[in-house]
């Protein structure tokens, strides 16, 4: 798997240079076009592993190299190898041998010798290195200090569990399309296909192991979609009735748009600022055999609005993604504390603009996949002080329908069963 390590090193180096993994991974894969699907999948796994445990791997690398490694690709390859030795399931010597082979392909003659020496020294000195390893919280938890401090302050009872769950493999959860099948029938179809899964409740089924979607029974026929259980709360909370005019204001790739349409016969406008991301909405609508009006537009502006008020608005606003960090491991290292202020401003602009488009008596559901209160509770408090015609309704999660293991006033805390999302329901007087 030296090819996989090499691709992972390309991707990790790009992230450490400030680029998103969603852009860096395809770019890294294009550099090694001969990689098999298995090597590509392994490269993805190694990149995630390295970014999940980056602070720890970087601390070991610093302890093992008297001078910093200046070549970014060789440095990234060492981080990949160390992460595999620390937290991967592969045999130690296979990891080292493959990393040495991969180093030979970096174009640096000295790289093979250095990678060999560093990784073998790690294996030899592991116990002593571990004993002397930094006890800093950054190394212990593998998050930046500002992130740890903010969670400590905002969740004094839960911060450790939240950090720990963010470092685990995310579950793969499906939403069964009740227009085509039932949860019981789909569970049986999975069993018949030899796929282990269990019913979380309502439309949510969790797989024991993640799988490529083409292996899922009836995926192309629209029997199911991939959607975290926490995200499956949006459609039920909207309290939909047939014939309602509904806006999904930040809709791409269309998970919640499609869930709304699977749940109820409504007239839906699916808006997003990014035209390329809206292609995914169209693909999902087509696969699931659903209809919506899909429009490119800025939810913080009104140019796209035809003046007909909406009965329901879903505002699944752009955010830090801190509640889904186990799915977007690069975010821990790419986000900066000041980003929260920028997101909060955009979120407030979107919320205020959409409020004018809501009919009297109508409901707006504000959603983020963040756990930071600047984007969540504080945002809603600020909105309520400046909008006297807004009433906050309680967010009631019906746990007979779906799991909601830890919830604090609309804030779903991330758990093994679901991601961390925030929900606030506002009604116009
Ligand atoms: C959290 S994602 C939405 C996920 C989607 N609701 C789903 O369930 O699949 C946020 C989306 O907001 C879009 N976005 C960001 N700024 C926007 C704006 N000003 N107006 C409309 N959409 C925006 C992004 O392109 C992104 O697709």
Automatic annotation (TrEMBL):
It catalyses: cytidine(967) in 16S rRNA + S-adenosyl-L-methionine = 5-methylcytidine(967) in 16S rRNA + S-adenosyl-L-homocysteine + H(+). It is an enzyme of class 2 (transferase). One of its GO terms (molecular function) is RNA binding. S-adenosyl-L-methionine binds at residues 250-256, 272, 298, 316. GO terms for biological process: regulation of DNA-templated transcription. The keyword Signal does not apply. SUPFAM superfamilies: NusB-like (SSF48013), S-adenosyl-L-methionine-dependent methyltransferases (SSF53335). The active site is at residue 369. PROSITE patterns: NOL1_NOP2_SUN (PS01153), SAM_MT_RSMB_NOP (PS51686). It is found in: Cytoplasm. GO terms for cellular component: cytoplasm. Residues 162-429 form the SAM-dependent MTase RsmB/NOP-type domain. Its EC number is 2.1.1.176. Keywords: Cytoplasm, Methyltransferase, RNA-binding, rRNA processing, S-adenosyl-L-methionine, Transferase. InterPro entries: MeTrfase_RsmB-F_NOP2_cat (IPR049560), MeTrfase_RsmB-F_NOP2_dom (IPR001678), NusB-like_sf (IPR035926), NusB_RsmB_TIM44 (IPR006027), RCMT (IPR023267), rRNA_ssu_MeTfrase_B (IPR004573), RsmB-like_ferredoxin (IPR054728), RsmB/NOL1/NOP2-like_CS (IPR018314). Pfam families: Methyltr_RsmB-F (PF01189), NusB (PF01029), RsmF-B_ferredox (PF22458). Belongs to the class I-like SAM-binding methyltransferase superfamily. RsmB/NOP family. PANTHER family: NOL1_NOP2_SUN FAMILY PROTEIN _ ANTITERMINATION NUSB DOMAIN-CONTAINING PROTEIN (PTHR22807:SF61), NOP2 YEAST -RELATED NOL1/NOP2/FMU SUN DOMAIN-CONTAINING (PTHR22807). Specifically methylates the cytosine at position 967 (m5C967) of 16S rRNA. NCBIfam families: PRK10901.1, rsmB. This is 16S rRNA (cytosine(967)-C(5))-methyltransferase.
